[in-house]
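Same chain as my last thread, 71 residues:
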Amino acid sequence: EQYASANAIANYARLLVSEGRRTALSGLSAESITCQAVGEAAEEGDELSREIVQRAAFYLSVAIAASPVNR
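reply #2:
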């Protein structure tokens, strides 16, 4: 949840934008950078948004693999 929740995705995107990373999200206000906005930008080909989604997917897959259900 720390890395793959909707809030985590939005917060990470806001952090990267505040650090000056180039992205389609750069023109949005901090409040407008949501998980949905990241997903839409990723679908439209924004590289940074794709990286954010891939990062979340990685951490989600790690959490699922480590789940007691899978043992």
